[in-house]
Amino acid sequence: MNKIKSTIIFIGLLALSVNAAFCAGIDSIIKKSELNKTATIAVSVKDAKTGKTIYEYNENKLMNPASVQKIFTMKAAYDVLTPEYTFDTKVFADKNNNLYIKLSADPSLTTGDLKKLLKEAKELYKKPFNDIVIDSTVIDNKQWGVGWMWDDDTNELLPKYSPYTINQNKIDITITPNKNNTIDIKNKSDYHMMFVNLLKTGTTNNIVFERTPWLSSDMTYLTGSVHSQINKKLPVNSPQAYFTNELRKAVSAAGLKYSGQIKTAPVPGNATLITKHSSDSLENLLAETLKESNNLYSELIFKAAAAKYTKQQGTTQKAVDMYKKYYSEITSTSEMITVDACGISRNDLLTADWTTEALNKIYKGKEFDKFAMLLPKPMEGTLRDRLINISLRLRAKTGTASGISSIAGYIDTKDNKKYSFAIFIQNHNEPVENVKKFEDDIINEIYKM
Q1: In the prediction, which pLDDT does 14 show?
Q2: Beta strands of 188-319 (E only): which ranges?
Q3: Quick check: is 378 in a domain?
Q4: What is the pLDDT of residue 6?
Q5: 233 shares its domain with 264
Q6: What residues contact 407, with CB distance under 8 A and at least 6 apart?
Q7: Which helix (H) or strand (E) holds 286?
Q8: Fewer CB within 10 Å: N-end or C-end of the chain?
Q9: Tens digit of pLDDT for each residue in 115-171?
Q10: CA distances from 378 to 218, 244, 245, 431 (A)
Q11: What's the predicted TM-score (pTM) here?
């Protein structure tokens, strides 16, 4: 009996010793880092199966999660909508031969999809239409997040989100320097945008795009230098105007005849469904959202989930309410502040401790394996150039914004334990590659456990 007791004590002491060495390893990485002198760092590591805390550092400090937030907003939406859900853009006709296009907030809808849809409508209905009417009531038309930066208006990673979304609300432009020291700006779309060309030729490509909505939202100012041709995706300033422009092109391409106008109104209850276009499955759309950190996809999926959850028009606030209820069993939920789906708002705040608790909730919930596969692994998405040495052991979501870096997810350790982890870094002024290496050093230390 004494021998068994001694063995149990020895095993317990050994476990404590191993855990202490593990904690000391992460402590050393943090304390030796230049980041620790000026930035705020928060880390939490938990056993995903038992919930036991393995390591914590500033775990209760409120931090901006950046795109790590997508893990949690998208999991709530995933469960509400289901993996098989599709965004269905539908075409109806009423008794007066008006054609209605009921939008679904499909983030992946393209002009090509719209052309095909209207061609099918023409072939199936076989009559000329009077008015073409757009029903955009599925979600509201607030196009910019609370706490988003006004000067991100031209950032191709942050196009405005709207029920009128098409081609991800971006157009292609080409900037070309000429031999006579002039610079051409070519809009490859026929959607009209006004450019104020203040560019100069130079030895490097260094262009600043800016809009001044307090003066005029129709103008995009280009300043800086151009050395060689540049292709750029530029967010449109008005998704509704852009959608209407693409709709006219699709109507013409489909050979669809109408004698009235393009209007907006809800589909009447007595209208007849003619045809529909279905997006790819939510599961595949979420793979794009999480692996490539697509902000527009996340915002539209979040609002669409709210629409289904409340059976009302989808709004960000309703989606946030849905999300908070989903994670309400986590005791520290009251600490978090969430105002958007993608985490880009500086108003969003999470703690590292809440993050690993939420990761553990997801791990213990339904369809964890299917959802985890939607997160990037090394050599994939935003992790394509990182942590390749543990590529089969890691699923994680990154986050990056000015002065902010984060990563959270799941790791299967060298000893086959499954840990959830969160690393938040805020208010840094280091090169991004240095910050990401610091995160990778901590993750490799977790892997050794």
Answers
A1: 40
A2: 194-201, 206-212, 216-226, 230-235, 262-264, 272-278
A3: yes
A4: 53
A5: no
A6: 68, 396, 397, 398, 399, 422, 423, 439, 443
A7: helix 282-291
A8: N
A9: 999 999 999 998 899 999 999 999 999 999 999 998 899 999 999 999 999 999 999
A10: 41, 40, 40, 21
A11: 0.93
Residue that the structure tokens 């409508």 belong to = 121
Which amino acid, one-letter code, is at 160?
A: K
Half-sphere exposure of 247 (CA within 13 A, CB side): 23
CA 437 to chain centre: 23
Query: 156 — alpha (psi -120 to 50), left (phi > 0) or beta?
Result: alpha
Domains held by the chain: number: 3
Split at pLDDT 50, 70, 90, the class of 24 is: confident
Residue 3 lies in a domain: no
Q: Which of 382, 381, 378 is nearest to 391 (CA)?
A: 378
Determine which helix (DSSP H) or strand (DSSP E) holds 56, and give its type and residue range.
strand 53-57
Q: How far apart are alpha carbons 392 and 2 in whole angstroms?
A: 43
- Residue 77 to residue 421: CA distance in whole angstroms: 22
Q: Identify whether residues 167 and 223 lie together within a single domain.
A: yes
Judge whether residue 379 has pLDDT over 50: yes
| Same domain as 351, residue 209 | no
Q: Quick one: average pLDDT of 26-37?
A: 92
Place of tokens 């959607």: 191
Same domain for 393 and 439? yes
Residue pLDDT, tens place only, 216-244: 767 899 999 999 999 999 999 999 999 99
